[in-house]
Amino acid sequence: MAEKRKYARKYCRYTEAKIEFIDYKDTQLLKYCLSERFKIMPRRLTGTSKRYQEMVEKAIKRARHAALIPYIVDRENVAVNPFEIL
Fold it and tell me: Which residues have CB under 8 Å from 29's CB, separation 6+?
């Protein structure tokens, strides 16, 4: 019989920090919920609660619209840190 794996409990970092609102201009806070190709990470991978995941999604979409975060990443010309302003 196969033994059940025990995973480390995921926790919501926004709940622990007691953040009330996630602002789209705070790219350092949003970077945690983005993959290396700037896709929005799902709740099951980040451990973010439903309330904060909805706020994060809205903030990321607003930041993309304001050109603070890229929509897509060019694979040929990869930037080391696209959050830095040249």
Answer: 19, 22, 23
